[in-house]
Task: inverse folding
C-alpha cells in the first residue's frame, strides 16, 4: 500500500503533513509519497526519526492556493502538488491520494484525472459526523450544487456501500435530509427523491428533520451538496460557539477556577469525540480511485487519520463496491434518462 | 392592544398557554383573547389570580391537529382555534395573533385570511438566533420552499425592516447564506440573488458560510425556507446533543458530583441565552397584520414572550414598515417580471 500525500495542501502545511505522514507510516506500516517542493520537504524530514524506506518525496514546483479559482488551478497549474499526487494514482505508482488543500481543486483534479466510475453521474463527498450513538455519514457534503433526484439516489447507494465497508454496518439505514417526516413535505428535489428511494431496495427510513440528524437514527443522511455543506459548516461553527459560550459562563462565575478545570476536561473529551481530526477526512465517492479530502485546518493527527482512511478505503476496494452498487441497483433505463436531466 | 392567542395550539396547550397569557397581561398590561374550547379554558382560568378585564375567552369548537394536512385543516376546520383567532385580527377585534400550534396551518391561515402585503410575493418566517454578540434573524426559516431570487431579495428587505424596528439596529448588515465567500460560489439561486442584493441599496455584506453564521457578523441572514428550516432545526438538535454529551462526560468522571454541579449551572445559563423561549416566537413577515408563530414545545414563558413580541410588532407598525420597504426599494419592473418567475 502506497499513498500519495499532497504535502503542500492545508493551513499548516507542510509541517503537519510531514509529521502526520511519519506518524502514519510508523503506526500502520504503509508507504507515503510526499508530493511538493523537494527542498522544503527534505528539510522537514531531515532531523526526524522514521523508517526511511516508507517515506519518499516526489517533487512538484507549484501549489494551488486556497483563494484560487478551481478552473484556473486545473488548467494552469499542471505541476501543482495536488495534480502530481493524483497523477501518481492514475499511473499506478500510488494506491490512493490525500489532500487537505483547496477542496474544490482537489475534487475537480481527482475527477478530471481519474474519471468517474461507470454509471456515476456525479461524485460526492461523504463527511463523517458524530451523534450520541456513533457516527453517521452526510452525503453530499459539498461536491455538487443543484443536484437532481437521480444524483441523490446515487449518493444514497454510494453512501450505503461506504458505510458497509468502512463502518461494518449491514443494511445501513438511509434517510433523506428534509423539513418534515412525511413524503408530501419538502422541496421539489426531496419530494421526487423520496419516491426514487422508496422504490429502490435501499433500507430507506424516510425524511429526517434537522432536529433528528444528530440523534443517530440514520447511518447515511442524503442531501444536495449545497445543503450538505451548510449543514456541515453550521455544525462546526455552532460547536465552536457553544464551547466558547460555556467557557465564558464558567469564567464569569466567582467559583470560576475550579469549575473551569472541570469544564475544560469535559469539553476536551467532548471535542475529541466530535473532532473531525478523529475521522481524518472525507472520501470523494464515485471516482475511479481513492481520494480523501482533508479539512483545511488539518493537524498532524488529522493527516495521519486521513492516510489511514485512504489505506482502508483502497484495500477494501470501496470504489469497486460502489461501482457494483450503482450498476446493479439502479435500473439502466433510469440512468440513461436521468443523465441528461 | 388586544392579542388573540390560539389557546389550543402547542404540545402543552392549553395549560401553558393560559399560564403564559396570565403572566403577559400582568407584566405588560395588554389584553389577551384566549381562543379555544370555552369549558376547558374556563376551567384553566378558574382558580387563577389575574386582572379579570384583561383576559377573555372566544369559543372555538375545533383544533387543527399537529399531524393534520395544512390544506385539509384550512378547508375543513373553519372553527379551529387558529382560524377563529386569525379571524379576530381580520375583523379588527384583535391587533395581533399568536399560535404555537401546527405552524404550517397557522401560516397558511394567516396568509389566507389576512392576505399578503401589497407587492410581497411570499411571506416568510423570521427566526431569532443567538450568537456570541447578540441575536440575528434567519429569514426564511421555513415558510417557503423552492424560492426564487426575487423572493430572497424581498426576504432581505423584510428582515431589514424587522431588525430596524424590533432590535433597534440602524442599517442592518444583511448576508446571504452560502457555501463560499465570493459571488461565483453557490447554487443557481444564491448566485442570482447575490447580484440582486449587490444592486440594491441594502447593506449587503456578501455570502455567509455556515461556519460564520453564529459569529454575529450579520443582523439578517437570508436563505430559502428549506435551507432555513434545516439550519434552524440542525442548530436546535445539535445544541441538545452537545448538552447531553457534556452531561455524560461529567457523569463519567469519578470527580463527577462537584463537576456536574458546576457544569449544570453553566449549561443552564447557556441554555437560557440560547433558549427560543426568550424570543417567544417568530413573526410571519409580509402578511397584512401581525402573526407570531410559537415553537411547538412552547412553555408558559415562551407564550408570554410571543405575546410581548406580538404587541411590540403591532404597536411599532412593522407590517406597514415592511410594505413601505418593499414598495420603495424594489423597482416595480422587477416585481412585475419576477412575480411570474
Result:
Amino acid at each position: 500500500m502506497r499513498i500519495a500525500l499532497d504535502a503542500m495542501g492545508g493551513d499548516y502545511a507542510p509541517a503537519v503533513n510531514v509529521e502526520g505522514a511519519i506518524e502514519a507510516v510508523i503506526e500502520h506500516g504503509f508507504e507515503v509519497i510526499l508530493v511538493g517542493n523537494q527542498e522544503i520537504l527534505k528539510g522537514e524530514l531531515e532531523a526526524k526519526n522514521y523508517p526511511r524506506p516508507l517515506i519518499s518525496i516526489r517533487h512538484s514546483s507549484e501549489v494551488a492556493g486556497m483563494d484560487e479559482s478551481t478552473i484556473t488551478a486545473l488548467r494552469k497549474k499542471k505541476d501543482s502538488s495536488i495534480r502530481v499526487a493524483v497523477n501518481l494514482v492514475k499511473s499506478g505508482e500510488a494506491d490512493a491520494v490525500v489532500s487537505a488543500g483547496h477542496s474544490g481543486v482537489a475534487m475537480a483534479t481527482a475527477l478530471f484525472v481519474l474519471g468517474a466510475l461507470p454509471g456515476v453521474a456525479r461524485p460526492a463527498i461523504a463527511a463523517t459526523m458524530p451523534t450520541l450513538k456513533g457516527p453517521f455519514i452526510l452525503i453530499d457534503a459539498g461536491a455538487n450544487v443543484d443536484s437532481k433526484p437521480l444524483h441523490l439516489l446515487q449518493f444514497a447507494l454510494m453512501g450505503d456501500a461506504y458505510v458497509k465497508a468502512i463502518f461494518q454496518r449491514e443494511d445501513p439505514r438511509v434517510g433523506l435530509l428534509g423539513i418534515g417526516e412525511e413524503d408530501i413535505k419538502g422541496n421539489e428535489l426531496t419530494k421526487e427523491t423520496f419516491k426514487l428511494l422508496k422504490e429502490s431496495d435501499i433500507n430507506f427510513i424516510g425524511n429526517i428533520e434537522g432536529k433528528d440528524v444528530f440523534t443517530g437514527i440514520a447511518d447515511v443522511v442524503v442531501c444536495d451538496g449545497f445543503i450538505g455543506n451548510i449543514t456541515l459548516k453550521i455544525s462546526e461553527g455552532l460547536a465552536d460557539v457553544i464551547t466558547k459560550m460555556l467557557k465564558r459562563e464558567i469564567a464569569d462565575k466567582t467559583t470560576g477556577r475550579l469549575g473551569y478545570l472541570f469544564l475544560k476536561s469535559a469539553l476536551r473529551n467532548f471535542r475529541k469525540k466530535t473532532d473531525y481530526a478523529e475521522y481524518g477526512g472525507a472520501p470523494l465517492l464515485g471516482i475511479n480511485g481513492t481520494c480523501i479530502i482533508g479539512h483545511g485546518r488539518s493537524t498532524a493527527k488529522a493527516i495521519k487519520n486521513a492516510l489511514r482512511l485512504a489505506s482502508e478505503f483502497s484495500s477494501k476496494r470501496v470504489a469497486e463496491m460502489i461501482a457494483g452498487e450503482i450498476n446493479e441497483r439502479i435500473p439502466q433505463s433510469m440512468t440513461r434518462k436521468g443523465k441528461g436531466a
The longest strand of chain A covers residues 31-36. Residues 336-341 of chain A have pLDDT under 50 and may be disordered. The domain at 128-275 of chain A is CATH 3.40.718.10 (Isopropylmalate Dehydrogenase). Chain A touches chain B through 57 residues (CB under 8 Å).
